[in-house]
Each structure stands twice: as structure tokens, then as C-alpha cells.
Design brief:
The complex is a heterodimer.
Chain A lengths: L1 H18 L2 H15 L7 H4 L2 H6 L3 H10 L13 E6 L5 E7 L4 H5 L7 E7 L2 E8 L4
Antiparallel strand pairs in A: 1-2, 2-3, 3-4
Chain B lengths: L1 H15 L25 E4 L7 E6 L8 H9 L2 E2 L2 E2 L7 E4 L11 E4 L15 E2 L3 H8 L4 E4 L11 E2 L2 E3 H4 E6 L24 H17 L5 E4 H4 L12 H10 L6
Parallel strand pairs in B: 2-11, 2-12, 5-11
Antiparallel strand pairs in B: 1-8, 3-4, 5-6, 7-10, 9-10
Helix pairs in contact in B: 5-7
The chains are: A alpha+beta, B alpha/beta.
């Protein structure tokens, strides 16, 4: 029994450490851009938390908003997204910023606001749970 | 009969804000309180006379988020060795979007006014007026940890300017008033834009005026991206003049 608990703890901690690596965070935001820029809406469940989708009127409503976004050409796609992130002070919550290459905004948008994303672990997987606007 | 009408008027006023308040109607708007968890960390205190500006924000979160939820997020902000003390805003406004009925319209107290807020941006600095310079020079703005020694922190100043958080109060409207985009996944659909309702504008005006009545040095209403590159507070920024006009109806003057 004791061995099982230790083994389970080991598996969970390994899994958790993996889930919050740079690689998995970059992967999350690569898929994020696939949804939000390339409109690959079939990836939505791999990007956003269920809570986020529910709060945004459900998956269908969210997909409708994605489809409203202006289409982008392959040429104007943002370059590979680099993500800076940090763990919350107390909980398993992460705050992430997308850092685009300097020329990305020439084709995508005028202002250079870099939002801060709230990222949570849902069933051991990183998922975007929204954004936060505050004074940090 | 007169008494009956007054009672009826008081009931209607209370219902419109979803609660009763002993101070109503002598106060312009009732303010609710909740118990917030706090981190055992350092914070700065100030005389409220330091404050001359109200800064408007939107939370970017769904408009059903509670003040306690924002507090939970803020307890996780900062560096591991220096986390935020508690919610960074001094007032939290919940209100429904147009044509919606939830959440219940209310204003809740956040971080006490005597504690320097965390909302305008830690790298935003402003020029001090004479009163503020005097209070700073007298060592009235001090930082420390509960139960410990509070002392002047030179990092609050940079090139003769003071952190905007020291001279401002953060008032956040819970919700997201900017359009949906790659940078704002909680934003509104372009087909169905969200604007602050008349009732929300009125609540902001009442709260601002109530603060000015209590603290006459509060003369300005600004917005988050006045200090800091952000989309916050969305299109609430376009309604600042309307808020000031409304506040004038309650006898207040804002620049």
C-alpha cells in the first residue's frame, strides 16, 4: 500500500513537472495561435479550459467568435510564438505572456499590448483559462 | 402618507442595488464588504490625502467574477519572495452587461484606501504636487510587514516622481469591455459589442463622487492605459466624460 502511494506520488509529480515545462507552455500557445489565427477550431478543447469555454457561452459560441476574426494569409501569420511565464505564488496557476517578433505587429495589429494569460492545469494538462489585466 | 412614500422610495433604491444599507440614502451608493484572505508579505501605507486620482479598470475576466476570485488571482501575483498583499484594487464594481440581469449590481470594498494599491503598473510614476511632496518628505509613506517595522522605501520614487499606485485608487469594473481578438479571448463578439450600461456609468459616477466628498483632494478620473500599455479598460475609456458629467449631477467636479 505504502509503495503504491509513493509510486503514485512520483508519477503525479513527474507528470505535473512535465505539464509545466517551457516546452509544454510553448506547445500550448502554438496551438493557441492555430485556433485564434489559423482558425483550427477543432483544437479548442486542447487549448482552453472547460470553465473558460462555459463562461464564454459554450464552445459553439466561442467558435463563432473565432470565425468572425479577420482571415490572415500565410505570409502574415505571426512567427513562432515565444512564451514567458511564471507560476503563481501559491497555487497551481500560471501567468503567461506571448512575445512576438518585433515585426509581427506590422501585419497583425497596430498596438503592441501583450496580454497576460491565466493558465491552469486541467486533468494534468495546461489550458488557457482567460487573461488578466492588472498592475503587474 | 408621506412616511409611506419615503419608505417605498427607500425600498426601490435598495432593490436597484440588490441590498439594503443603513446609510442609504445619505450615501450616494452603498459599498459592501467581504473578508479577504491576505498574504503574509510587505505592503505600503499612506495617508489618504496622498490620493488625487481614481483609475478605472476592467478585469478582463467574465463579469460574473467575484471580488474574492480577483483576490485569489492577486494573491498569486508578484515574486515568490514578495507576493502581493491582497487584491490590488480599492473598489470592485459588479454589473450586468446590457440586456442581461446577472450579476447583481454592487460595489465591494477591496484593498483599504490607506494601503497603497497594486493596479496602475509598478513601473508607472507620476509627478507629485506640493501636498504629496510634503507627505513624502515627512516620511508618511512607509512599507513593511504586519507586526514588523514600517519604514520609508526609496524605491517608491524614481527621478523625483512617485509610483502612480501611491497617489491613485483603483476602481475595477468586473467584465471585459474590449473586442474579441487573439490578445483578448474573453472579449465581446464584433456582432454584439458590450458597453457599460447607463446604470454602470451611474454607479461609477456615484462612487467617484462619494470618494470626492469624503476626500476632496480626489480631483481626477483616469484609466489604466493612461499609465501603462494595455487594452484596459476597453471602451469604458470612451465613457469617462459621461461619468464626469454624471458626477457633476451629484455635485462633484472631476478633471
Amino acid at each position: 500500500m505504502r509503495v503504491s502511494i509513493i509510486f503514485l506520488s512520483f508519477i503525479l509529480s513527474t507528470f505535473s513537472a512535465h505539464a509545466m515545462s517551457d516546452q509544454s507552455m510553448n506547445e500550448l500557445f502554438r496551438k493557441y495561435d492555430q485556433v485564434m489565427v489559423q482558425k483550427k477550431v477543432e483544437l479548442i478543447d486542447q487549448v482552453f479550459s472547460q470553465k473558460f469555454l462555459k463562461e464564454n457561452g459554450g464552445k459553439d459560441s466561442f467558435i463563432a467568435k473565432v470565425k468572425e476574426l479577420p482571415s490572415v494569409t500565410q505570409k502574415s501569420l505571426p512567427p513562432a510564438t515565444k512564451v514567458s511565464w511564471k507560476k503563481g505564488v501559491k497555487k497551481e496557476i500560471f501567468f503567461a505572456r506571448i512575445q512576438d517578433a518585433p515585426n509581427a505587429h506590422k501585419t497583425l495589429k497596430k498596438d503592441i499590448h501583450h496580454p497576460e494569460f491565466i493558465v491552469v492545469l486541467e486533468n494534468g494538462k495546461l489550458r488557457v483559462d482567460g487573461t488578466i489585466s492588472d498592475g503587474e | 402618507m408621506k412616511h409611506l412614500l419615503l419608505t417605498l422610495a427607500l425600498c426601490i433604491s435598495s432593490l436597484s442595488f440588490g441590498q439594503t444599507n443603513q446609510d442609504w440614502p445619505s450615501e450616494l451608493i452603498p459599498v459592501e464588504t467581504v473578508e479577504y484572505k491576505r498574504n503574509n508579505t510587505s505592503y505600503c501605507v499612506r495617508p489618504v490625502e496622498m490620493v488625487d486620482t481614481i483609475v478605472l479598470h476592467h478585469s478582463e475576466t467574465p463579469n460574473t467574477s467575484t471580488p474574492e476570485f480577483i483576490n485569489e488571482l492577486h494573491l498569486n501575483r508578484g515574486a515568490p519572495t514578495d507576493p502581493w498583499y491582497m487584491i490590488g484594487y480599492s473598489y470592485v464594481l459588479n454589473a450586468p452587461y446590457g440586456n442581461e440581469t446577472i450579476p447583481r449590481a454592487r460595489i465591494t470594498e477591496g484593498r483599504p484606501l490607506s494601503i497603497v494599491g497594486a493596479h496602475a503598473g509598478s513601473s508607472a510614476f507620476v509627478t507629485m504636487d506640493q501636498v504629496q511632496s510634503r507627505l513624502w518628505n515627512e516620511g508618511k509613506i512607509v512599507c513593511g510587514k504586519k507586526g514588523g517595522v514600517f519604514k520609508v522605501d526609496p524605491a517608491q520614487l524614481s527621478s523625483g516622481k512617485i509610483k502612480a499606485n501611491v497617489t491613485t485608487i483603483g476602481l475595477v469594473v468586473i467584465g471585459n469591455y474590449a473586442p474579441f481578438s487573439r490578445e483578448n479571448p474573453n472579449g465581446y463578439s464584433h456582432q454584439n459589442p458590450r458597453y457599460p450600461t447607463e446604470s454602470t456609468i451611474d454607479m461609477i459616477a456615484r462612487m467617484s463622487c462619494q470618494l470626492q466628498i469624503k476626500f476632496p483632494r480626489i480631483k481626477h478620473i483616469k484609466w489604466h492605459n493612461y499609465y501603462h500599455a494595455t487594452t484596459c479598460p476597453g471602451n469604458i475609456k470612451d465613457h469617462i466624460e459621461m461619468i464626469k458629467l454624471k458626477a457633476k449631477e451629484y455635485g462633484c467636479e472631476f478633471q
